[in-house]
Amino acid sequence: MGRGKKKVHPKTRTAAFKASEPSEIVEAPHSFVIHRGLTCPYITDLTLDFRRIMEPFTATNLREKRMNRIKDFVSLSSFFHVSHMAIFNKASTQLSFKVVRLPRGPSLTFKVHQFTLARDVISSSKKQMIDPDHFKHAPLVIMNNFSGDGKHLKLMANTFQNMFPAINLAQVNIGTIKRCVLFSYNPETKLVEMRHYSVQVVPVGLKRSVQKILKGTVPNLNKCNEVVDFVTRDGYASESEVEDDEQSHVVLAQTLKSKGNLEDNKSSIKLHEIGPRLTMQLIKIEEELLTGEVLYHDHVVKTEDEKETMRKLIEKKKKMKEQRKKEQAENRARNLKLKKAEKGQQKRDASKNQDEDAYESDDDAKYYKEEVGEEPDEELFKHEEKSSRKRTRLPGNMKYKNKKPKLDHDKKKINKSKKTK
User: How far is Cα 138 from Cα 163, in angstroms, rounded to an integer?
Assistant: First the structure.
């Protein structure tokens, strides 16, 4: 028989896996999107839709259980290079959305006022544009109206931007920008609107007939003698001239894969909303991972004295926690020492008993020789170790001794009828 493959230690396998990953994937921000609290099918669908926004650097097929805690996901974050965690928490009165920077914070808590699932957004739109290839690259992040006063606005804007990989304008490939995410802040209502769009680039200045040919669709040439007649026929106005706004026209710096979009030529950018939608309000910002000092709160405003007392209380709790950990470590080490000492004492007692039994057997042999005058047999005073009463295996003739043989169903009925007679 051939020898099996040599098993590789898990640490060695993990180090080799991390070394094989390219630097672009390792340095990109990764995310976990989970939901907590009360069960609701709409919140589950919203969680899955938000994972689609965060693709490809997110755990799309992440499975959650009731027994899972936030600590479980935090412990796995370092291995999978996870930098952010989004949590949808359903309570009896409201739905909250939390964005956490791993592993040490800060934590932003939002109150969700309204949300719309992706399937509802797509079903309500006239032109549905969904392509699975659009989710192979990270979306472009657009921030609107986050330039107001207040450190909480800057922190909120930086958090939203850092959830997605940064774009290098000098090296970016325009063809990879297939989606965009819009975060818009309203200073009057203090609400943040989130929208998710699919980006389409269409050449400008081409007739509709030419666009159909470029897209690869087969035109209806029933009333035309040649293709030239179809192209030069009147009445085929350009879609961009009829519907598009001039503000959506741009000059491309690169040639795209889509037909007709050439370098240094004008093209029109169209956005198709693919969902989901979120309308939320920032409630509070915590310094650490869902704990620590409250840096900002929308409803509660504290004085400097109250903040100072809260800082002292938090520091006191930290010191008590460290002290408890230290005491637990000392108790654990002491218990290990006691267990080792007990095991050593048991071994010494067992060896001592064996020596005493051997000494007694030697005395019995000498007494027998003095009284009888002959050497005793070897097996007469041989020291036998006590064996356990439990049998390792049953003899062959005792297997299935007490097991009743199975009878056919018809034979059982015959026996019962005989007994009744």
Answer: 10
Distance CA 180, CA 139 (A): 5
- E strands, 204-265, in order: 249-251
Q: In a 3-state reduction of DSSP, which class is residue 181?
A: strand
Place of tokens 């009165």: 93
Q: Is the pLDDT of residue 290 over 80?
A: yes
Q: How confident is the model at residue 407 (pLDDT cuts 50, 70, 90)?
A: low
Phi and psi (nearest 5°) for 83?
Answer: -110, -20
DSSP for 274-311, written as a single string = ---EEEEEEEEEESSSS-S-EEEESS----HHHHHHHH
Percentage of the chain modeled with pLDDT above 70: 73
Confidence of residue 237 (pLDDT cuts 50, 70, 90): very low
| pLDDT of amino acid 42 | 94
Per-residue pLDDT, 15: 58
User: CA 191 to CA 234: how far, in whole Å?
Assistant: 49
Strand partners, 180: 140, 197
Phi, psi of 369 (to 5 degrees): -70, -40
> d(Cα 280, Cα 194) in Å, to the nearest integer?
8
Compute the distance between CA of residue 54 and CA of residue 62 in angstroms, rounded to an integer.
13
CA distances from 40 to 4, 63, 89, 91 (A): 49, 16, 10, 10
SS3 for 316-356 is: HHHHHHHHHHHHHHHHHHHHHHHHHHHHHHHHHHHHHHHHH
What is the pTM for the complete model shown? 0.69
Between CA 76 and CA 319 the distance in angstroms is: 26
Q: What pLDDT is stored for residue 241 in this prediction? A: 45
The whole-angstrom separation of Cα 321 and Cα 335 is 21
* C-alpha to C-alpha distance for 28 and 22, rounded to whole angstroms: 10
CA angle 270, 265, 260 (to 5 degrees): 65
The span from the CA of 103 to the CA of 77, in Å, is 8
CA distance 205 to 237: 10
Q: Beta strands 82-90 and 30-37: pairing type?
A: parallel
Asked if the model's pLDDT at residue 250 lies above 80, the reply is yes
| pLDDT for the residue 315 | 85
